[in-house]
Amino acid sequence: MASQDADGETGGTGAGDGTRSADDGAARGRNTAGARSGGSSADSAAARAAAVIAAAGAGPAAGESVRIDAWIWSVRLVKTRSVAATACRGGHVRVNGERVKPAYGVRVGDEVRLRHEGRERVVVVRRVIRKRVGPPVAVECYVDNSPPPPPREAVAPAGVRDRGAGRPTKRDRRDMERLRGMQAGSSGPVRSAGPSASGPGGPSEASRRASGRRSPGS
Question: HEC string of the chain?
């Protein structure tokens, strides 16, 4: 009985140790997950703070204004400043509902609407900058209220083949040329299926034969 009691006590002790070890392992896992989550949140906050500081450094000097073409280029709404100026001159840029010229001075709180490459961007100015910055810094300079972009199929240019499809055949080229002509609003050159009116067998030749006259040079 003594040996059985001793064995029983020993077994109970082992089970208790195993339970405590499992609990300790779970606690350590929770602590590690919490530390990782806290670390990622801290990293995100630090990155955003650095982006805000960089955006402030790209701003104008005191008393200076920023042109609208320079601003939409600086915040990466377009690829080049010349494209931004062209969009303004073409009437594709509106500030608070009004069409503006490239030299228009943008201010914090302005709503900027830009139509470019088949998409409309609607942003509200949060920070005025005049130097081009990276994407993480650019997104800190405006509030993006743009509608979702259209599906890729709706803006795909005519005649574009899938990658890996190989070289187009003659039939593919004819189809692409026909599609381009339809999109351009022209039906392309009209070709007559029959013989030319002035060539052999044409209506003028038949009329001369019916009248018994010969064509010149015969």
Answer: CHHHHHHHHHHHHHHHHHHHHHHHHHHHHHHHHHHHHHHHHHHHHHHHHHHHHHHHHCCCCCCCCEEHHHHHHHCCCCCCHHHHHHHHHCCCEEECCEECCCCCEECCCCEEEEEECCEEEEEEECCCCCCCCCHHHHHHHEEECCCCCCCHHHHCCCCCCCCCCCCCCHHHHHHHHHHHHHHCCCCCCCCCCCCCCCCCCCHHHHHHHHHCCCCCCC
Residue 90 predicted with pLDDT over 90: yes
Rounded Cα distance between 25 and 143, Å, is 45
Q: Encoding tokens for residue 99?
A: 């069409």
**What does the pLDDT look like over 150-193, one tens digit per residue?**
776 655 455 565 666 778 788 888 888 887 776 665 544 444 44
The angle at the Cα of 21, spanning 15 to 22, to the nearest 5 degrees, equals 90
Enter the pTM of the model. 0.52
Spatial distance between the Cα atoms of 19 and 31, rounded to a whole number of angstroms: 18
Q: Pick the more confident residue, 108 or 164.
A: 108
State mean pLDDT over 49-63. Answer: 78
